[in-house]
């Protein structure tokens, strides 16, 4: 049985607000946005120089050529702490995923058109960061992979579900979901504040996180990552926390 719906979006400011987007991740979006707007101190001698050292390594591996920018990885937000929406606890942490049969389950409840587009673009085997959101310290805790590509989200037809959509028809489902499977925990927790410090440094020097959607479209709970973005963030697990 799938877990209670807890992954969902209200469109970013530029998106149109659809009347059928029943449960919006308002608290999550607000919490993350407030966290992101706090001044982040760039770790002394680490963010900018770290990017330059990382770039040299990547260029050396590629024979001096930077890789082509494509979206081939993802970042998925979920809430690790209990919160009720229409009587349903939307909590779902990485431990909850690990407790599922085969450590696999569906990523349901998405009710934003941009996020739906990203869901439908996911390919079998692609990896994603599992991101704890709407909590005291948001950040990346694990890596998961896509084990089933987009198919109709059953919660849109369930009148008891907070994400029920009366306008969706089974012959033409409006919303999709994918199945994800736990791969491994990151070697350490990578907090939003640390990622933002690198993002700010990269905006100045052209590093891989300069356009990371976690900061340019932070309200989306499903976000694409380029290979460079994914590789750089993953490299942070090898560094000592600041």
TrEMBL record:
Keyword Phosphoprotein among UniProt keywords: yes
Superkingdom of the source species: Eukaryota
Compositional bias of kind Basic and acidic residues: 10-40
Primary site of residence: nucleus
InterPro entries tied to this protein: 5hmC_binding, EVE_domain, PUA-like_sf, THYN1-like_EVE
Key words, A-Z: Nucleus, Phosphoprotein
CDD domains: EVE (cd21133)
Function description: Specifically binds 5-hydroxymethylcytosine (5hmC), suggesting that it acts as a specific reader of 5hmC.
Matches recorded under PANTHER family: THYMOCYTE NUCLEAR PROTEIN 1
The name this protein goes by in its record: Thymocyte nuclear protein 1
């Amino acid at each position: 049985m799938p877990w209670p719906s807890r992954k969902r979006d209200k469109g970013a400011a530029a998106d149109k607000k659809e009347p059928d987007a029943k449960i919006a991740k308002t608290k999550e979006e607000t919490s993350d946005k407030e966290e992101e707007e706090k001044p982040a101190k760039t770790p002394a001698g680490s963010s900018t120089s770290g990017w330059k050292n990382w770039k040299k390594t990547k260029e050396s591996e590629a024979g001096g050529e930077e890789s082509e920018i494509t979206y081939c990885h993802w970042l998925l937000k979920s809430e690790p702490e209990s919160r009720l929406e229409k009587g349903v606890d939307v909590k779902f942490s990485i431990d909850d995923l690990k407790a599922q049969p085969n450590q696999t389950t569906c990523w349901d409840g998405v009710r934003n058109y941009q996020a739906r587009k990203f869901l439908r673009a996911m390919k079998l085997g692609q990896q994603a960061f599992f991101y704890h959101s709407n909590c005291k310290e948001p950040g990346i805790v694990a890596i998961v992979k896509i084990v089933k590509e987009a198919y109709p989200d059953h919660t849109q037809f369930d009148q008891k579900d907070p994400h029920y959509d009366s306008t969706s028809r089974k012959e033409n489902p409006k919303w999709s979901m994918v199945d994800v499977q736990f791969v491994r925990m990151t070697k350490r927790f990578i907090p939003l504040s640390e990622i933002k410090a690198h993002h700010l440094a990269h905006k100045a020097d052209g590093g891989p996180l300069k356009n990371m959607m976690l900061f340019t479209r932070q309200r989306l709970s499903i976000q694409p990552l380029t290979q460079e973005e994914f590789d750089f963030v993953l490299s942070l697990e090898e560094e000592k926390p600041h």
